[in-house]
Amino acid sequence: MAQERTLDVAELIEGRKPGAAQIGVALLLCTLMLLEGYDMQTLSFAAPAILQEWGVSRAEFGYVLTGHLFGYLVGAVFLSFYGDRLGRKNIILAGAAIFSVFTFGAGFATSQTELFALRFLAGVGLGGAIPTGIALAAEYMPHKIRATTIGLMFVAYNLGAASGGFIASWSIEEFGWHSVFFIGGVAALPVIAILAIWLPESIRFLVVRGRDQASVAAIARRLRPEDDLASVTRFTISEEMRTNSPTSLLSEGRALVTILLWAAFILSFTGHYFITGWMPTVLSDNGFTISEANAAMGWFQMGGAIGSFIIAVALDRLGIKVVGWTFMFAVPVVIALGLEANYLLLQMNMLVAGIGVLGGQIGLNALCGTIYPTYMRAMGAGWALGIGRIGATSGPIIGGYLLAMGLQRPILLFLTAVPLFFCAISLFALAVAKRNQDQRDGVQTTSIKASGFAH
Asked: Which of 374, 370, 379, 334 lies closest to 354 in space, CA to CA?
């Protein structure tokens, strides 16, 4: 009879190349990122047509543009908390279902109040699903490539947003602004079905929570079919088995790291969401057609896909500072978007701006999914992404008032670059703070000492 033994599930993941099952988890979660990318841009694509049809002011509509962002904050802070308690998969599926229903419903909105409420509820769903999906992906990858994996997943986010621009440039002209919401709501249904059937629960989460050992064993066999696991009778994990609490984010030497991470998110989202929320309207006000403005935003998102790939490859090797330098690169490029240019040059500028702004944002998203240990990872990612929505909601609201004041495009884009500059400064400080924390905790890392990916 084979000798019975205990196995730390980290041995199935750490120090090994990702197997087919791990890659499959990342690819499945990419479908979720496609949905988020499309949804986050739907209202900005529809905004010029809605403003024309409803005859509302830009200052008033700035609040409507924040509906899904406020919802995302609520979902990220509260639903992701339960992702650390009820399971990653359950929260992902529930969040995607909420998103599907209320995104489709937004196509029937007849007033600003209705549209705000429906976008808020759709945002709650995504706010729960996306940070939890980030945590799940991180837990299936060895720490040395966690940030790379999450960064590559967000390429799908940018592709979803880019497709939204190109779809909107066609569908709004043919079927009206309602169509972009109908398309998003229906597209979520097959994604939910695919995730329900094939997406596994986090094996680390199951072990930390002391869940069904049979389920753990089944996932272990999928992860390493080449290993003989027949003699394993109990699976364990070396990470602490603790209950998460929001206070954990600010205790045990994490306070400075957490606060700097939140500051970087708030600042990046302020600039990011002014561009993604108002740029189609700014361009249409400058004489471009709605179709041209939405297509230009498609190029911005395509740049984001390129930037996401570059950052994903560099982040695990070079650490947090590479994200800071990406935002610093974005500052002059965003300012250049305010200059008068023909449509071809505008498209090129939008592509390059997307590389800097969205590439840097994806780097931040990857950080929040890797910087905390398993027992609090979904909550840590959720709070970072949720707190960041303070900036995400500020960008469209402030932008609406600035547009109502009649500020011209050069000034608007210069002001947009200011928070991106301070975001870069926050990230440079975060790199130092994380390195100091790791030294205090005795964490051993390789070439990415400042990254904090050694959990």
From this structure: 334
* Residue 453 lies inside a defined structural domain of this protein: no
pTM for the whole structure: 0.75
Each residue's pLDDT tens digit, 403-439: 888 888 899 999 999 999 999 999 999 988 888 877 7
Mean local confidence (pLDDT), 354-360: 92
Instruction: Please indicate, yes or no, if residue 417 is contained in any of the structural domains.
Output: yes
Structural domain harbouring 326: 5-441
Pairing state between β 5-8 and 232-236: parallel
Q: How far is 103 from 128, CA to CA, in rounded Å?
A: 15
Residues 310-315 have a mean pLDDT of 80
Number of domains in the chain: 1
5 DSSP β-pair partners: 232
What tokens appear for 267 in the block? 């600042």
pLDDT of residue 242: 57
451 domain-assigned: no
For residue 274, the domain's CATH number is 1.20.1250.20
3-state class (DSSP) for residue 35: helix
Strand partners, 136: none
